[in-house]
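Quick one, probably user error.
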């Protein structure tokens, strides 16, 4: 009898544990709106896989929560921490500088020696701005460079970046790493434009690249659009001479494919040479990395657009490399240059302490959310958003966030359309939404929902339902 009694105890304990877990899950579900909980169940997502906070900013109104203090992978909603901290620390008018210096002597319209470009970490230096910088130098009467183009990236102190490390795709633009001399996000846009009368598809490459041997056209095909990238059977192993062994379906209309197949020095050199020669200049050297010596003759400077506009690009379109550039500048402005991820993490933790925004669960890697290791809780994100709403930079941060049903990454969302500013997050097994919802009552709410689960891909209906519930019932 005693032996049998001992054998039954584990079964009793397991049953009691299961009952306790079921009770806790039921209690948590009871704190969530029914439409949201039902949508989670329909997607096969247990309440234990979500972190949720709904709270009114004036202290009165609807409230909901589940696992609010649990560390979660937030995906791109982590950008809210980075951009808010940067706005508070650096100010909305903060700008980056990119300098052009002459390292050789000048003889008439010729530089006898090297020309240097010193990057300051500008996240928004696109080809149009580089063109303007070239025009400034050409406007000084300089026609020819008889030396190298020295690329000074010393403002950042970073390890080599492996574009394939995150998900094995070394060509995708979202995997581009930060660079003190980042131009055009190191990306190439291949635009396919059907020309039905000619029976071909025109290929346009932006930005123009000196030395490119890409074909001017690719074969056209009939039939459904479908997986048009796969149908092209593209080979980018020789990035300056891509090959398309397939055909582009005419039914697709005009499409663009953004990739980053060229290493940074070769990319910068090809873009610069194309712009320089198109303006009537001549350059006979090569591009190489180096440091601009003190006392060098400064020829021209490009000042970036202000941080408030950069933050808008980061959050509206969830630009990963721009977010990392902002994160690095934030750390360097607080601790000192050169910038590094280590300095930025130290600076972020110090800033959170100063702001009385304790986040003991916080795990940082790059500040962009493009990470398998970054962690934050729904409660921490909610408190951050509440603090931001009461801050001097509230307008800049809120304006940077996509408006549901209107623009950015939330353009196709439906919950609280036109009445919610939210940042979305998407990774494999992660879906998140965090931001502000204006209810029909006139109250404004902070809403955070993070899902970490294998079925997270089916979460959009639940998130839309949560936003709409707050909008209508709040």
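Nope, works fine. Designed sequence:
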């Amino acid at each position: 009898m005693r032996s049998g009694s001992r054998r039954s105890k584990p079964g009793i304990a397991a049953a009691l544990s299961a009952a306790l877990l079921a009770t806790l899950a039921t209690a948590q579900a009871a704190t969530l709106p029914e439409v949201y909980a039902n949508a989670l169940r329909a997607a096969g997502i247990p309440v234990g896989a979500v972190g949720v906070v709904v709270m009114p900013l004036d202290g009165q109104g609807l409230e909901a929560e589940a696992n609010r203090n649990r560390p979660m992978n937030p995906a791109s909603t982590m950008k809210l921490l980075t951009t808010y901290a940067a706005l508070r620390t650096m100010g909305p008018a903060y700008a980056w500088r990119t300098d052009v210096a002459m390292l050789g002597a000048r003889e008439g319209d010729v530089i006898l020696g090297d020309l240097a470009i010193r990057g300051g970490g500008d996240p928004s230096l696109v080809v149009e701005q580089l063109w303007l910088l070239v025009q400034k130098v050409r406007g000084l009467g300089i026609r020819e460079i008889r030396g190298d183009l020295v690329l000074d990236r010393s403002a950042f102190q970073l390890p080599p970046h492996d574009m394939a490390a995150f998900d094995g795709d070394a060509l995708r633009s979202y995997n581009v790493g930060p660079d003190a001399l980042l131009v055009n996000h190191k990306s190439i846009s291949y635009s396919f434009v059907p020309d039905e009368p000619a029976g071909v598809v025109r290929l346009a490459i932006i930005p123009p690249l000196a030395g490119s041997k890409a074909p001017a056209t690719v074969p056209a095909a009939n039939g459904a659009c479908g997986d048009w990238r796969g149908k092209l059977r593209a080979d980018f192993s020789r990035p300056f001479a891509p090959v398309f062994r397939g055909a582009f379906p005419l039914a697709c209309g005009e499409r663009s494919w953004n990739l980053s197949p060229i290493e940074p020095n070769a990319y910068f050199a090809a873009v610069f040479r194309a712009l320089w020669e198109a303006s009537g200049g001549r350059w006979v050297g090569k591009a190489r990395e180096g440091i601009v010596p003190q006392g060098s003759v400064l020829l021209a400077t490009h000042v970036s657009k202000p941080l408030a506009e950069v933050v808008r690009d980061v959050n509206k379109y969830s630009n990963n490399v721009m977010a990392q550039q902002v994160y690095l500048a934030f750390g360097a402005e607080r601790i000192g240059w050169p910038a590094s991820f280590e300095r930025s993490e130290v600076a972020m933790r110090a800033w959170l302490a100063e702001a009385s925004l304790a986040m003991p669960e916080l795990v940082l890697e790059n500040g962009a959310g493009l990470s398998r290791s970054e962690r934050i809780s729904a409660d921490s994100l909610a408190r951050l958003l509440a603090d931001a709403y009461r801050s001097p930079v509230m307008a800049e941060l809120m304006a940077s966030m996509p408006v549901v049903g209107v623009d950015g990454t939330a353009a196709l969302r439906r919950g609280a359309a036109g009445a919610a500013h939210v940042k979305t997050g998407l990774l494999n097994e992660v879906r998140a939404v965090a931001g502000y919802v204006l209810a029909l009552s006139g109250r404004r709410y902070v809403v955070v929902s993070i899902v970490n689960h294998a079925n997270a891909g089916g979460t959009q209906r639940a998130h839309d339902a949560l936003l709409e519930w707050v909008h209508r019932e709040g």
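The first strand starts at residue 50 and ends at 56.
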